[in-house]
Design brief:
The complex is a heterodimer of chains A (267) and B (272). Chain A is of the alpha/beta class and 267 residues long. Chain A contains 12 helices and 10 strands. A 6-stranded mixed beta sheet of chain A has the order 6-7-8-3-9-10, with helices on both faces. The longest helix of chain A is centred in the C-terminal third of the chain and has 18 residues, at 183-200. In chain A, 45% of the residues are buried. Chain B is mainly α. In chain B, helix 7 runs antiparallel to helix 10. The longest helix of chain B is centred in the last third of the chain and has 32 residues, at 233-264. Classes of the chains: A alpha/beta (267), B mainly alpha (272). Chains A and B meet through helix 3, strand 6 and helix 5 of A and helix 1, helix 5, helix 11 and helix 12 of B.
């Protein structure tokens, strides 16, 4: 991140008085005998980009699903944009959006039809102009009238991103946003997300296995393992703490249980 | 713990968006459109000829002209009404789109209302040509039933929505592994609904069970109209009262199943 970017993402006095974009308090989710999320707490300020890291089964998707209200917590509280989820979801769902590999856009509808339907669901004003702007921004123009099912994986990801941005959300939840993209398109999407955050002071929470992506985009990283928060800091601070040059090395330390050794070595 | 959101501020705009979504889907596939016409047409032709054959060989059926074709048409309103509702719901499961909808400002009640409207649209596409076939091939004019037809239709469609809401909740909770319920549940009530025979045919104890189902009142009412030229308003009012209870109960069940799905995390999987 450049100094200018940092300055622009710093909250103003008025913004800092707003409630956190996401506040998670002692959140627990138990599926039968499994504690998928085990007493986690964190708070994300407005305008931040936070990476949620962890191996498969670490509890990232369940955490995001609870924030979205798709999964009910066993105990604990989630507040989104100052409103309790899911009981006050009607107040916030129109101000947030998400993209996840666990959901698809309807395959038989064209890109334009899909964006029209979701635009109407989110009561987007001047919808045609908004769709045209997104098509232009995300390079969808050539296939706007093609059914979603006939698109390549990369094109589908861009359409899903367009859906996630249709209502210009204050809060964007992204689960593996660049998973099926080639390096060039993935880089371009990251640039787009950075610009979107900067221009809209949006808050972004993203779960990703791509450590370079997290290093580039995120000003904070939460590492999860077996449902618990293993570490929570800026990427730089975490890498320094583990005495590692990249987040990928930190990820491997955490995944393979070398946490204490790495931290000791750093000391 | 937390409560699911209640349903303040129902938005016609969001209901319209969902109807638009299903309309686009319907227009995107001519085999789907054709299928809406195919089965009802096949039904009415088959039962029309059966009615002709029986009428020629049995004096009672000669008097009771049209009861079989009438029953087939009304049964199709009930069955296709539920299918029209449930298939639109299943489309979301097949498309793995439910998460997108649940995360949007769309409320459960708006979702269900859009499915109700779609069931009417799908029903109109399938059943109106069916009634015209009955008229031209077998000289049975269901519209000649007049105002009672509206009472029959309303009661049947309310029942079909109740069943549709309930089975959609079951699929939501249990994933596509429970899909077969959508296609079969209505047939489970078929023997008790007394579509082709009067309630008096059933053993006494089973008649009590039959009278708990609104369609039973409709089919009895239809026979009273066609055979005795009597409109039984009392039957229609009884059916309406039971339907009101069923609609409220099915909506409550849907919300409970949705909540259970959120507790189990099945909205994220949606599969078997």
């Amino acid at each position: 991140m450049t100094e200018n970017d940092e300055a622009s993402s710093r909250p103003t006095v008025a913004e800092s008085s707003l409630p956190a974009a996401i506040a998670v308090d002692h959140l627990v989710k138990v599926y039968k005998q499994t504690r998928a999320v085990d007493d986690i707490s964190f708070s994300l300020p407005r305008g931040s980009i936070t990476g949620l890291l962890g191996g498969n089964g670490a509890g990232k998707t369940t955490t995001i699903a609870m924030i979205m209200g798709l999964v009910l917590p066993t105990s604990g509280r989630v507040q989104v944009l100052g409103h309790g989820m899911p009981e006050e979801s009607a107040s916030v769902l129109g101000r947030m959006n998400f993209e996840s590999p666990y959901v698809d856009m309807p395959m038989r509808l064209t890109v334009r039809q899909n964006l029209t339907v979701f635009g109407k669901l989110y009561a987007v004003k001047n919808l045609s102009e908004r769709i045209a702007a997104l098509a232009d921004d995300l390079d969808l123009t050539d296939f706007m009238d093609r059914p979603n099912g006939k698109l390549s994986a990369g094109q589908k990801t861009r359409v899903a991103l367009a859906k996630a941005l249709i209502n210009q959300p204050e809060l964007l939840l992204l689960d593996e946003p660049t998973a099926s993209l080639d390096p060039d398109t993935a880089d371009w999407v990251r640039g787009h997300l950075e610009r979107y955050r900067r221009d809209n002071n949006a808050t972004i929470l993203l779960a990703s296995h791509n450590m370079l992506e997290v290093e580039r985009l995120c000003d904070r990283v939460i590492i999860m393992k077996r449902g618990r928060i293993e570490d929570d800091d800026t990427p730089e601070a975490i890498m320094a703490r583990y005495n590692r040059a990249t987040l990928e090395e930190v990820f491997l330390d955490v995944a393979r249980g070398r946490v204490n050794g790495a931290k000791e070595a750093a000391r | 713990m937390t409560e699911l959101p209640l349903h303040r501020g129902i938005s016609a705009h969001r209901i319209g968006a969902m109807i638009l979504r299903y309309w686009y889907l319907l227009l995107s596939s001519w085999p789907r459109l054709l299928e809406l016409l195919y089965w009802p047409a096949l039904q009415v032709i088959t039962w029309g000829f059966i009615q002709y054959y029986i009428a020629e060989n049995a004096s009672f059926f000669a008097r009771a002209g049209g009861t079989l074709i009438g029953a087939v048409i009304l049964w199709d309103i009930l069955f296709r009404g539920q299918l029209g509702f449930s298939i639109s719901f299943l489309e979301e499961m097949w498309a793995r789109n439910l998460g997108n909808l649940m995360m949007s400002p769309l409320k459960p009640i708006e979702f269900l209302l859009s499915l109700m409207v779609m069931s009417l649209i799908r029903l109109a596409i399938g059943v109106i040509p069916m009634t015209l076939l009955a008229l031209f091939l077998f000289h049975f004019n269901v519209y000649a039933l007049g105002l009672p037809l509206i009472a029959f239709f309303c009661n049947l469609i309310f029942t079909s929505w109740s069943v549709g809401i309930f089975v959609s909740g079951l699929v939501l909770r249990n994933g596509l592994g429970a899909e077969s319920i959508v296609w079969t549940l209505m047939f489970a009530i078929m023997p008790l609904a007394c579509i082709y025979y009067p309630v008096s045919v059933l053993p006494g104890w089973l008649q009590y069970a039959a009278w708990t189902l609104p369609p039973t009142y409709v089919f009895e009412g239809m026979r009273a109209l066609l055979i005795e030229n009597t409109f039984r308003a009392d039957l229609m009012l009884d059916a309406l009262a039971i339907n009101a209870v069923l609609l409220v109960a099915s909506f409550g069940a849907f919300l409970a199943l949705l909540r259970s799905a959120k507790r189990q995390g099945s909205l994220l999987s949606g599969g078997e």
